[in-house]
C-alpha cells in the first residue's frame, strides 16, 4: 500500500502537472471506484492538491474535492496530451505498456492530458465531496509525523495506554497518520527497538529516538520518490519507479546481513503483517 512518502511524491508531481487544468471529461470504467456523477466535477479547474496521511485530495474551483485513496495497489498515471497511450519504455505493473489497461478504473480528461486511475484489486476509490467536509472526513486520523503535534510527549501518552506491540501502534492511523508497514519496519530498526515490544515498556529516551527515526525514514522515502517494493505496484505518475527500496535497512531483506552488525535479518508475522528486524541491533 502506498504510504505517506509515496502519496506525497504523487501529490508533488501532480501539483506541478495539473494544477490550473480544467476537467473536460470523465470516463468511469468501474462505478465502484467512482460512485458519484461525473457532472459534479466536469468543468471545474484543479485548484490545488493536498495530502492527509495516505489520502490525496484534489481540490477543485467549484468547492468540490476529489478524495482519492489508492489502498493496496492503486496508481495515478499522468499522460500529457501528446497521446492517449503510455510512452514506450515504461511498462506499468499490472497494466502493461498502454493505457487504458484492464486495471484502469477511471480516466479524467484535462485540457493538456489524461489522468488514469488504475486499481487492480478494486479496493481504492475516488469520491467527490464538498471541500468544506474534508476536515470532518479525516477527523479520526492521528497527527502528521511532520507536524508540531508529533512530539515525544504525544507518543509517550499514546504508548503508555497500550501493551500492543510498538509496531502495531505505529501502524494505527488514528494514532499517527501515514505510517505503513515499510516505514514502521525501517523506523524501528533506526531506533534500535524490537517491533514486538509492548508499547508501554518503551522508555522516554527510546520514544525520542523513535520519533526522530520516523521523521528520518519518511523524509528519506520522499527524497527517493517512494518505494517500489517487491510487487512494484507503486509507481510515480510518470510511470517510473521510486528508489527507496534500494536503501532499505531491513524491510524485505530477511536472510541478508544487517548493514550495521552483520547478523542475519529475520522475518516474522506480527498481526498478519510481514515484520523485519535485526535480532542484535533491535532490543
Would you write up a description of this structure?
This protein is of the alpha+beta class and 283 residues long. The chain folds into 2 domains: 4-137, N-terminal domain of MutM-like DNA repair proteins, CATH 3.20.190; 152-277, Helicase, Ruva Protein, domain 3. The protein is 23% helix and 22% strand. The chain has helices spanning 4-18, 134-137, 152-159, 166-171, 181-191, 204-223, and strands spanning 23-28, 46-52, 55-60, 64-69, 74-80, 104-110, 113-119, 125-130, 266-270, 273-277. The protein has a 4-stranded antiparallel beta sheet, with helices on one face. A 4-stranded antiparallel beta sheet has the order 2-3-4-8, covered by helices on one side. Strand 9 (266-270) and strand 10 form a beta hairpin. The longest helix has 20 residues, at 204-223. The radius of gyration is 20 Å and the shape is globular.
Amino acid at each position: 500500500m502506498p504510504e505517506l512518502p509515496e502519496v506525497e511524491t504523487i501529490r508533488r508531481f501532480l501539483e506541478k502537472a495539473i494544477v490550473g487544468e480544467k476537467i473536460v471529461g470523465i470516463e468511469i470504467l468501474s462505478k465502484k471506484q467512482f460512485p458519484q456523477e461525473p457532472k459534479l466535477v466536469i468543468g471545474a479547474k484543479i485548484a490545488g492538491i493536498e495530502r492527509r496521511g495516505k489520502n490525496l485530495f484534489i481540490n477543485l474551483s467549484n468547492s468540490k474535492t476529489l478524495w482519492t485513496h489508492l489502498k493496496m495497489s492503486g496508481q495515478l498515471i499522468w499522460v500529457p496530451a501528446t497521446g492517449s497511450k503510455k510512452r514506450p519504455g515504461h511498462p506499468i505493473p499490472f497494466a502493461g505498456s498502454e493505457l487504458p489497461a484492464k486495471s484502469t478504473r477511471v480516466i479524467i480528461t484535462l485540457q493538456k492530458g489524461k489522468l488514469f486511475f488504475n486499481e487492480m484489486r478494486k479496493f481504492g476509490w475516488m469520491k467527490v465531496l464538498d471541500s468544506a467536509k474534508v476536515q470532518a472526513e479525516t477527523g479520526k486520523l492521528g497527527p502528521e509525523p511532520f507536524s508540531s503535534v508529533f512530539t515525544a510527549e504525544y507518543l509517550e501518552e499514546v504508548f503508555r495506554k497500550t501493551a500492543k506491540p510498538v509496531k502495531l501502534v505505529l501502524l494505527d492511523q488514528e494514532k499517527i497518520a501515514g505510517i505503513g508497514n515499510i516505514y514502521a519496519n525501517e523506523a524501528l530498526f533506526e531506533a534500535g527497538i524490537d517491533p514486538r515490544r509492548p508499547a508501554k515498556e518503551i522508555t522516554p529516551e527510546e520514544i525520542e529516538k523513535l520519533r526522530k527515526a520516523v521523521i528520518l525514514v519518511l523524509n528519506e522515502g520522499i527524497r527517493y520518490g517512494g518505494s517500489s517494493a517487491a510487487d512494484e505496484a507503486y509507481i510515480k505518475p510518470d510511470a517510473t519507479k521510486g528508489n527507496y527500496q534500494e536503501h532499505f535497512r531491513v524491510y524485505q531483506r530477511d536472510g541478508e546481513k544487517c548493514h550495521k552488525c552483520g547478523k542475519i535479518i529475520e522475518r516474522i508475522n506480527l498481526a498478519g503483517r510481514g515484520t523485519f528486524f535485526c535480532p542484535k541491533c533491535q532490543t
